[in-house]
Amino acid sequence: MFKKILVANRGEIALRVICACKELGIRSVAIYSEADRNSLHVRFADEAICIGPPQLALSYLNIPAVISAAEIANVDAIHPGYGLLSENANFAEVCEACHIKFIGPTPDVIRLMGEKEKARAAMKQHGVPILPGSDGVVASAEEGCEWARQVGFPVILKATAGGGGRGMRIVREEDELPALYRQAQSEASAAFGNGDLYLEKYVERPRHIEFQVLGDEHGNVVSLGERECSIQRRHQKLIEESPSVKMTPELRKEIGEVLSKTLSHVGYHNAGTIEFLMDQERRLYFIEMNTRIQVEHPVTEMVTDVDLVKSQIMIAAGEKLADVLQGPIVHRGHAIECRINAEHPEKFTPSAGKITTFNPPGGTGVRIDTAAYAEGTIPPYYDSLIAKLVVRGKDRSEALSRMSRALGMFIVEGIHTTIPLHRRILADPEFRAGNFDTGFIERFLAKKETAI
Ligand code: ADP
Asked: Residue 165: pLDDT band by 50, 70, 90 thresholds?
């Protein structure tokens, strides 16, 4: 087993990884920017190294600075968390070259899944259902029109290097396609330095459902079931839950089996998430794979009792899945997560500054993952997620009641947060009934505005 791990991240996920290290008896090393000097991940790690000024490019995304810290601290492995360098194949390669274990899949697999149209082809080849669309990159607007005619409008243009919903355009009619193609291409070039686009059939009112997998370095891959992530605003998830009200045991088993087989073929190891859209006939279609731990992983941990971050570390140390999991995956109860962002709850503008009061709820079935505290400051430079409130109940009804009461007891003062928005969503009859799709939040906000 590793003796020392560097955590190449900040905020709640850095703390989450440090917790896993502590439980495994591994020393942890935090890295931090000058803006994070007083952060809890710095306080709770066994060692901490300042790696630069606040700007991401000069600190947490600065590969030479991160690697130097790892060498100075003499660590065996690096856990990248999510975001930042977690899906950077080049970083994983540099770690390998420096004989530091990157806790994640191989650079080749990260690269394959990072090019979304290649990932689509790999999934299709092994029998994972994908949406009808172009075979690879669409070279011009004319070629796009040809594919779209075959597939049938509406279609969606997507950036092969995509992420965060950028470089995506819905095309409803053929004559709109050339202009939208140009827009998506320039947005993708600006965001990713790569303007390549591909095209997919657009699904009306889909649900976003993803599968969590774990694979070891001996060819074994297991599915831990799904998370429902349809409650999103501008493609950013706000609430996640497991199980999905639309999932059946048969479908879960079928998709789980095809994913295990496919990812074992691809040589996938460590934690990963495969994202699907579900249409109104409950058919699932692959859209992309994330080759890292996800923000919403606690939802799966709550219903399976598997510690995903400890599993990642044990797998990276060479352990077999059978030894990591010690038994079959069993799903118990229902879990829900609300992402608490430092944002204005309706305008969604960031709200950095000093937290004056921080009173997180507790009690049966409640879990909080956070690095925030009273008198602490939320710097303006980073992601706005400050806490994840996760509950588990014996069924969805109990989980909903528990979440409502926990949100009512969560007091954060000094900055704006999304807590009031979550309280309102939890009271919405459609949400409570499980009747929603990825357009829920936009409709919910529009409804409220007319009501005011
Ligand atoms: P990104 O990597 O930029 O987040 P994704 O491919 O994961 O892009 O898609 C993000 C979101 O966009 C999905 O959760 C879904 O809401 C919407 N979306 C993507 N593809 C389609 C599609 N073919 N039909 C309908 N909605 C889609």
From this structure: confident
pTM over 0.90: yes
Ligand 1 centre to CA of 1 (Å) is 39
Per the residue annotation, which of 169, 207, 292, 402 is the catalytic one? 292
Verify whether ligand 1 is closer than 6 Å to residue 287 (CB atom). yes
Specify the CATH number of the domain 207-451: 3.30.470.20
Q: What is the pLDDT of residue 293?
A: 98
363-389 pLDDT tens trace: 999 999 999 999 999 999 999 999 999
- For residues 227-262, b (16+ Cβ closer than 10 Å) or e, as one string? bbbbbbbeeebbbbbbbbebbeeebbeebbebbbeb
In a mutational test of the pocket of ligand 1, which residue from 82, 147, 151, 168 has the highest number of ligand atoms less than 8 Å from its CB?
168
Burial of 153 (0-12, 13-18, 19+ CB in 10 A): middle
Residue 292 designated active-site: yes
Question: For ligand 1, is residue 163 a contact (CB within 6 Å)?
Answer: yes
Q: Do residues 410 and 361 lie in contact, with contact meaning Cβ atoms separated by under 8 Å? A: yes
Asked if residue 452 has pLDDT above 60, the reply is: no
Of the candidates 312, 260, 309, 289, the residue with the CA atom closest to the CA atom of residue 110 = 289
Domain residue spans of the chain: 4-103, 132-201, 207-451
One-letter identity of residue 48: A
Pick the CATH number of 132-201 from 1.20.120.1560, 3.40.50.10440, 3.50.20.20, 3.30.1490.20: 3.30.1490.20
Whether a cis peptide bond, with omega within 30° of 0, leads into 54 is: no
Distance in angstroms (rounded) separating the CA atoms of residues 400 and 324: 31
445 Cβ partners below 8 Å, 6+ apart? 346
pLDDT value of residue 281? 95
Fold of the 4-103 domain: Rossmann fold (3.40.50)
Q: Whose CA is nearest to atom 9 of ligand 1?
A: 165
- Checking if the pLDDT of 49 tops 90, the result is yes
Average pLDDT over residues 6-10: 98
Annotate 18-41 with b (16+ C-beta within 10 A) or e (fewer): bbbbeebebbbbbbbbebbeebbb
Residue nearest atom 21 in ligand 1 by C-alpha distance: 202
As a whole number of angstroms, the distance between CA 266 and CA 3 comes to: 30
